[in-house]
Amino acid sequence: MNVVTCEDDGPVRVVTLNRPEVRNALDLPLRIELGDALERAMVDGEVRAVVLTGAGPAFCSGGDIATMVESMTPEQIRERTELAQRVVRVIWTGDKPVLAAVEGAAFGAGLSLALACDRVIAASDARFGAGFTRIGLAGDMGISATLPERLGPARAKQFLLMAQQVDAAHALQIGLIDALVEPGRALTAAIADAQRMAAGPPLAIAAVRRAIGGWPRSRLDALTVETANQVALFATNDVAEGVAAFHERRSPVFRGT
Amino acid sequence: MKPIRSGPVLLDLDARGVASIRMNRPEAANGMNVEFLQALHTAFMTCHADPDIRVVVLSGEGKHFSAGGDVKSFAAKGEALPDYLREATTWLQMATAAMIQLPSPVIASVHGFAAGGGGLGLVCAADLVVAAESAKFFSGAVRVGMAPDAGATVTLTQLVGLRKAMHILLANPTLTAQEALDIGLVNEVVPDADLAGRVDALAAQLAASAPLALAATKRLVWGGIGATIHERLPEEARTVAELSGTADSREGLAAVLERRTPKFTGC
């Protein structure tokens, strides 16, 4: 059975972690398959947005402690870690938005994976935890960048140092996640949001992801980046279409050109 | 593009797409005052607006490239100097930024003195620099009790390293063209009589190159200052993939295979 499955809902590619028996823990094959699946989605011209979710009752329980063995050499650890970092690198360097649909637990690297996405939608009974330090680790898959982005550096540090766990309502309140839905509805809601992004102008969406993804940057550098985006986007057909649709009071049809 | 044929900064464009911006206050060694700097900014912004421009050559009329800030205008301001310099520096910095952000490469053609924050600063902000054998480079900002501008505190350090940049900016040595070449401040030194010809040949070469590729490369190199390599790797990858879809890229690949000179259109 494939440890990652992919299914298209129009322009939205749903990528599912498929090891429900271990709550989608990220062992080596899953890391590789997930990276491959996301890379394919990023280069597929038919795909405009990606939803990442987990099969079964949990989103992802983290790094699969069962497959961490003491005998692993530093080289093996590096490879194992880099395969996880690659997943995040693909999300961050690709041009398409990625949304996380979280049911149940997003723990450890599972939380990192959700936070690496552009939008996190969770069921109201979902739980989030950063237990890295409980097993003597410090966190991977971008958590040291995404957690301070979402919570601010001081609260991010508390979260990791205290190995905190929060429920979905609290997570929404502190900005750890972006939306709450009823249990069982996370995927449906995420696909609906993804469809909305997929109908948007792909080049502008990619530019927004790059402009904000590079945060923190100096405010004055941000002005320069904005100017470059403005210059590049103004000449596109999508802006012409957007402006025309605005005047004609209709919905624009964007093509990414 | 409408050429600028009079005033403190001249601008012209030839059929090859080579624009020339000539600083034109020879009576003041192209000293920079507010009026001059506004004109310099306008010249670069005019280049921004013209898609036919492939390369820009920046040079000075008269005996010097530029002496930098116009000491006479400055001294005449008395108590009002700080306000005047705030205005002057704003225009200088905007001209510098416009030069760096211009998609086309900028070649500085330097003869005589390139001095002061402005003169030396513009040399540092240019993408390529060809100097006449007798050209001289000199900072001088601290000599008049001021500090370098036009980005020189960043660009000069990048070009020659911190140790040498400190010496140039703090101790004001007058560098010969050969010394400037040795430390990497300029690309080439040519006999005085050959300066215009060599700059024109270099400009012609760049004007015949793939404009989008030059623009992307320039943007990546300037954008790389202060960035980490891990940040820039995806940016490079994205740019290469994007450029590979252009007609010019297809033309370039075909020309290599067919062993002929490519003909680029900027598409």
Your description of this structure?
The complex is a heterodimer of chains A (257) and B (267). Chain A is an alpha/beta fold. Chain A folds into 2 domains: 4-198, Alpha-Beta Complex (2-enoyl-CoA Hydratase, Chain A, domain 1); 202-247. Chain A contains 10 helices and 9 strands. In chain A, the strands form 2 sheets. Chain A has a 6-stranded mixed beta sheet with strand order 1-2-3-4-6-9, with helices on both faces. A 3-stranded mixed beta sheet of chain A has the order 5-7-8. The longest helix of chain A is centred in the first third of the chain and has 20 residues, at 74-93. The radius of gyration of chain A is 19 Å and the shape is globular. In chain A, 39% of the residues are buried. The mean pLDDT of chain A is 95. Chain B is of the alpha/beta class. Chain B is built from 11 helices and 9 strands. The two termini of chain B are 20 Å apart. Chain B has helices at 34-48, 71-76, 81-101, 116-125, 152-160, 162-171, 177-183, 195-207, 211-224, 229-244, 247-257; strands at 9-13, 18-23, 55-60, 106-110, 113-115, 128-132, 136-138, 175-176, 188-190. In chain B, helix 4 packs across helix 5. In chain B, the strands form 2 sheets. Chain B has a 6-stranded mixed beta sheet with strand order 1-2-3-4-6-9, with helices on both faces. A 3-stranded mixed beta sheet of chain B has the order 5-7-8. In chain B, helix 1 links the parallel strand 2 (18-23) and strand 3 (55-60). Chain B folds into 2 domains: 9-207, Alpha-Beta Complex (2-enoyl-CoA Hydratase, Chain A, domain 1); 211-257. Chain A binds chain B through residues 89, 92-93, 95, 214, 224, 227-228, and chain B through 97, 101, 219, 231, 234, 237-238.
Task: Explain briefly what this protein structure is.
The complex is a heterodimer of chains A (257) and B (267). Chain A has 257 residues and is of the alpha/beta class.
Number of domains of chain A: 2
Structural class, judged by helices and strands of chain A? alpha/beta
User: What does the overall shape of chain A look like?
Assistant: globular
The N- to C-terminal Cα distance of chain B equals: 20 Å
Please identify the top-level CATH class of the largest domain in chain A. Alpha Beta
Q: Report the sheet with the most strands of chain B, covering strand number, pairing sense and barrel closure.
A: 6 strands, mixed
Which CATH top level class of the largest domain in chain B fits?
Alpha Beta
Percent of residues in beta strands of chain B:
5-15%
Q: Which runs of chain A of at least 5 residues are low in confidence (pLDDT < 50)?
A: none
CATH architecture of the largest domain in chain A, by name, is Alpha-Beta Complex
| CATH overall fold name of the largest domain in chain B | 2-enoyl-CoA Hydratase, Chain A, domain 1
Q: Tell me the radius of gyration of chain B.
A: 19 Å
Oligomer, anyone? heterodimer
CATH superfamily of the largest domain in chain A: 2-enoyl-CoA Hydratase, Chain A, domain 1
Strand order of the largest sheet of chain A: 1-2-3-4-6-9
Beta strand % of chain A? 15-25%
> Span between N and C termini of chain A?
38 Å
Summed over residues and divided by their number, the pLDDT of chain B gives a mean of 96
